[in-house]
Amino acid sequence: MNQVIKAVDLKAAGVPGYVIDLKCRPGGPWQRILPGVLLLGSRPPTRAQRLRAALAYAGPSAVVTGVDALHAHGLPALPPPTRIHLLQPATTRRSGVEEVVLERTTRRPEVVVRAGLPLAEPNRATLDAARHEPDALRQHHLLATAVRSGLCTVATLTAELDAGSRRGTATARSALKLLSTLLR
Q1: What residue ranges do the domains of the chain occupy?
Q2: Distance of alpha carbon 79 from the chain centroid
Q3: Structure confidence by residue, pLDDT tens digits, 33-84
Q4: Percent of residues, the chain, with pLDDT higher than 70
Q5: Which of 159, 60, 65, 158 is nearest to 110 (CA)?
Q6: CA–CA distances in Å: residue 162 to residues 89, 95, 132, 159, 165
Q7: What's the CA gap between 120 and 73, in Å, rounded?
Q8: Strands (DSSP E) along the chain, which ranges?
Q9: Residues with Cβ < 8 Å from 111, sequence gap 6 or more?
Q10: Rounded to whole angstroms, how far apart are CA atoms 54 and 51?
Q11: Is pLDDT above 90 for 12?
C-alpha cells in the first residue's frame, strides 16, 4: 500500500480537519509531504510514494517524465534526480513546488501506464530528462544509455526532438549527431 492520500479525500471520507492536523504534528503518525497531500506513516517517503504524492498534487492529467519515467520503463542505471518531473497540459495552472517540477506542455506525450503510474513514452521521457540535465557529459551519457539499452533509437529521439520545442535542445541535438556517427 502506498499510504499516499489527498487531505480532501480524507475529509470526504469523514475524517475531520482537526484530526488530520493533529496526526500531522511533529512526532505524529502522519506527515504532509506536499501541499494537500499526506503520507499515512511517519517514516521518510519512498521514491514510489513521492511519485504518487507528486501525481496527487498535480492532478489527474499529470504524467511522469524524465529519469523517473525511464526507471519505470526499465532503465535503472541512471541516478534518481532530486526533483520529480511531471508534464501537465498547458491549460493547467498548478505551480511546481521545491520537490516537483511541473512543466506545462501543448504536446501531451503518449502515456504508458506501469504499476499504476502514467508515464511519458520512452523517447519523450529521455529527451525531457536530457533537457533538464545541465551537465553536457551527463546529458550525453543519458542519451547514450537510453539508446544502448534499446529503449530508444537515435532516429526516434531525433524525430521527437524535431516535433517538439527547440528550447533547451542544442546539447541533445549535438549529442545525438555524435551518437549517430558512433553507431554507424
Answers
A1: 1-45, 46-182
A2: 13
A3: 999 999 999 999 999 999 999 999 999 999 999 999 999 999 987 888 899 9
A4: 99
A5: 65
A6: 20, 27, 17, 5, 8
A7: 9
A8: 4-6, 31-34, 37-39, 63-64, 84-89, 100-105, 111-114, 117-120
A9: 63, 118, 119, 120, 121
A10: 5
A11: yes
Extract the C-alpha cell encoding 170: 542544442
Say which amino acid occupies 90.
A
pLDDT for 13: 95
Q: What's the rounded Cα separation, in Å, for the pair 66 and 109?
A: 12
The residue type at 71: H
How many residues in the chain?
Answer: 184
Grid cell at residue 175: 549529442
Query: Residue 99's closest CA among 13, 33, 176?
Result: 33
3-state secondary structure of 131: helix
